[in-house]
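GNAT family N-acetyltransferase
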Amino acid sequence: MLQYRFKNSFADSNLSDRLFDLVEVTFPGLNELVECGRKLGASWESASTPFIRFQDDVAITHVGVLEIPMEIMGQRVTVGGIHGVATRPEFRRKGYYREVMEEVMEYCDQIYETLVLTTPEPEYYLPFGFRVVEEYIFQVKCSSTGNIDGWRILDFSTSQDLALLHRLLETRAPVSHVVGVVNEKPVFFVNEGSRTMYYIEDLNLIACVEIEDEKLHIFDLVSTKIPVLTEILARISQPIVEVIIYFHPDLLEVENVQILPHKLEETVLMVRGKFAATGEKFMLPRSARC
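Tokens:
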């Protein structure tokens, strides 16, 4: 069995505090999102395998590995996600990140055919075999008049809505057969748990969307069956003239789609290893980005 110098376990009761101190230094505000995910019922610790370099009992570098069950080009696969990559500023450019990352790659090569991550700084991952995969948004003009109010905001302080969210995430259909996610909670909760989510009862659909003027931005849809776009628009109580979709809309039955390259929140998707959707136009949903 391979021995790893930096692989740790959250069974160590002191590990979380030391790690999240490092995380907060590197990504201010992320700990609030992590805590939100924990309150919703899926903690960082339950999902992530931490690789950490310590100095004098202080966590100075961390690379986390988690699993994302996905559908890629119609095939179910378990993808490894690299996340929470952090080094304290005073310990940067000393080779510590490279040491930890090399061990993480050795570990992941035993388990996963595919690794993914999203980052605003792809240059840090190119030396480890990651490549940038271009992503796209899908714009559709429409003339929905908005006659029916079929949405309500989910309230996760109630046990009913929280149970609904868990049930639909566990049984969800992928939002796309090109690239979609199934039965995943921790990453979803960190990315979407602090945002407003909507529920359409007669479609049994949770929608991660934003409406800006008369434009509908669709970031993810969680349901056992993805409805077509016209069914979603019919339940919005205001006029919509344009829809921007942040995943491949193969299940939405849309026409006359304008496809444009796009960096979501100024990050790029990077992939290492086998990736069946190479060359396809798609976007990894916001809820699954790590």
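Residues 63 and 85 are 5 Å apart (CA to CA).
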